[in-house]
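INPUT
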Amino acid sequence: MREPTFLVLAALADGAKHGYALIREVGAISAGRVTLRAGTLYAALDRLAGEGLVRQSGEEVVGGRLRRYYDLTDAGAEVLAAQAARLRENAAEADRRLLARRRTGTAPA
Amino acid sequence: MREPTFLVLAALADGAKHGYALIREVGAISAGRVTLRAGTLYAALDRLAGEGLVRQSGEEVVGGRLRRYYDLTDAGAEVLAAQAARLRENAAEADRRLLARRRTGTAPA
DNA sequence: TCAACATATACCGATGATCTGAGTATTACT
DNA sequence: AGTAATACTCAGATCATCGGTATATGTTGA
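OUTPUT
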């Protein structure tokens, strides 16, 4: 799973959101590092819905504009948790090795 | 940056390695989750060398077989550290949101 | 006052980067 | 003869990115 997709799941983890809100939320939670494009978002939502990780959870009209909400399924929450654990492990492993590098001048082994 | 590329940098962080060793190392550091393919590896090495993150650091013949070594540049180490930090933050954010979800039944806001 | 622009919202298609799968080749050990 | 160790290539698939289209309302300056 790539970063934009991961961030979409993460953005949905604390409650249902509509597309436009997701775009803003992903920007916010990544501290501006990721600007989610509409094409990326809707393709990801389709894919994730197909995998049963996300589902549409209703529509609403606000100020004449339609809002279509999406939320995480339980399977989606599990996948997100597993993926987060994996990122944490990868990061930890990289840090461990970078430390070894610094300790030994530049390159052990 | 995707996971295989990240793991290649991580595998190089503690010292120069040759291609075949990298494939085994990436399998090991990801606890078997990632099986690096030769195509992925050599494409990644080319790309990373082009970006100045990795460089060839010599060749050696061992038991009649050539070993071509690669290692991380200082720029590569910096990029790896930055990327690791990013993964850590993304994972932390996801965990925070998953917690919020559990606290509130299934979906706040 | 009204045209112009910004903001909110949904969505599509072409392109491109990167990974995967499936190979070729060589030497040494069993 | 088969397997492990080693280097490498190429075609195809996946997914993200870029750059659109479309519509409605709110805001602003000539």
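end of record. The first helix of chain A runs from residue 3 to 13.
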